[in-house]
Amino acid sequence: MFWEGQPDTPLRLRSVLSERQELILRLVVDAYLASGKPVASKPIAERAEVEWGPSTVRAELAALEAAGYLTHPHTSAGRVPTDAGYRCYVDSLIASGAPQAAAGVELELSRLRREIDAAMRETTTALARVTDLMALATAPAQATATIHRVEVLRLQPTKVMAIAIASTGAIAKRVFDFEAPVDPGLVEWASSYLNESLSGMGVGARMIANRLADPDLGPVESRFVATLAPAFTELEQETGEGLYMEGAARLLSDAHVDDLPRADRLMTALERRAGVLGMLRSALDERSVFVWIGDENPQPELRSVSIVGANYGLAHRNLGSVGVIGPLRMDYATAIASVRGAARELSRYCERVYG
């Protein structure tokens, strides 16, 4: 395995591991993730898939430690993975195509209304439950929002509903009461006209208001469109950037507390939502699962944990990210599978809503 690292990332070592070293490193990480205790050479040498004697295993463990993939708390202890060891382990998981999406992540987003807010909350709740970690999700940024579709419906003779759906899935709805019955033909015309006039426009109150002030319209049509205008100008308020977090109590539970030496700094960083949101936005160009381990994290306060994330969106562009935060000693296989599956479901949801 040749591991070509990024020049500005010290954790990504430039080295060549033999197949034997890869296997031994994987077994050490697996054992440490399961027990949380330093791993000695004897249990590794006794594994059925290990064909070499204890002396060879000890030599390879020493070589992996010298290369920076393993370390030990004190001289007589077994080894534990370093950040670089976790990175090699995670890269191997992703490169092999495994694991596949976890069956436990059942978002069932098709049952939701078409509000992206509900989809984000459903996603983070499911991810936190399945992984027993803290889950994050970012809604599509306002800068990406355009008007996708407009609906004008005659609910009663004097009651009309106007609906505006943004490309991000956000929805603005307004019901308007008129003193006299509204001509059904006028409602049908308005729906067609507004779709043609506003579809594809960037969300912005001034831009939409200017477009609706059409001097070529007759007085009846002009007054009707002006009455409905707030439903579309208010759409901007519904498409703000959002960071959704769920599972803080899970992350700080007794099961993880020993693996979170700087929990206070972690929670302080998470409370600064803008920084976390910006960090996740920086990964929007990633095409697959992305993993930040320890010192790889862009935010210094998060360098005691790992973040596993993936992007979701449409075929031609990513719209947001979904992920989990956990200790360095986390179940990476489950985290990668769960995040990958959640991103896939969110992408399908986005295609149904405004694809």
- Please count the beta strands (DSSP E, at least 2 residues each): 12
Mean pLDDT: 82
Query: How many independent structural domains?
Result: 3
CATH superfamily membership of the largest domain: GAF domain
What gross morphology would you assign? elongated
Output the helix-strand order: EEHHHEEHHEEEEHHHHEHHHHEEEH
Question: CATH architecture of the largest domain, please?
Answer: 2-Layer Sandwich
Low confidence ranges: 1-14
Residue fraction in strands: 15-25%
Helical content (DSSP H or I, runs of 4+): 40-55%
Q: Strand arrangement, largest sheet?
A: 9-5-12-11-10
The CATH topology annotation of the largest domain reads as Beta-Lactamase
| CA-CA gap between termini | 40 Å
Features:
single chain, 355 residues, alpha+beta, Arc Repressor Mutant, subunit A, Beta-Lactamase, Enolase-like, domain 1, 3-stranded antiparallel β-sheet, 12 strands, 19% strand, disordered N terminus
What does this structure look like?
This protein has 355 residues and is of the alpha+beta class. It has three domains: 2-95, Winged helix-like DNA-binding domain superfamily/Winged helix DNA-binding domain (Arc Repressor Mutant, subunit A); 114-141 and 242-354, GAF domain (Beta-Lactamase, 2-Layer Sandwich), CATH 3.30.450.40; 144-238, 2-Layer Sandwich (Enolase-like, domain 1). Helices cover 42% and strands 19% of the residues. The strands form four sheets. A five-stranded antiparallel sheet has the order 9-5-12-11-10, with helices on both faces. A three-stranded antiparallel sheet has the order 6-7-8. A two-stranded antiparallel ribbon has the order 1-2. It is elongated, with a radius of gyration of 26 Å.
